[in-house]
């Protein structure tokens, strides 16, 4: 049962889990000892960061290669000369 639950996990998955868990523990520790003004500013910063991450394109958040648009086969290149027949 446990083997099926963690099937396919690799080192990157475990690093993400550890990073998110440690970040959550750090934030909870900070919020426990911070006063209300600091909590207000931290909440505002988190809102701004989440809005930025929501509207940012995925290749800015992660190092993904930029996709290259393939040229379809039915596209014909047309050259335009500066001459006119008037």
TrEMBL record:
Topology in the lipid bilayer: Multi-pass membrane protein
GO terms assigned for molecular function: pyrimidine nucleotide-sugar transmembrane transporter activity
Transmembrane regions listed in the UniProt entry: 12-30, 37-55
Gene Ontology CC terms, in alphabetical order: Golgi membrane
Coarse class of the protein's main subcellular location: membrane
Subcellular location: Membrane
InterPro entries membership: Nuc_sug_transpt
Keyword set, alphabetical order: Membrane, Transmembrane, Transmembrane helix
Protein name, per record: Uncharacterized protein
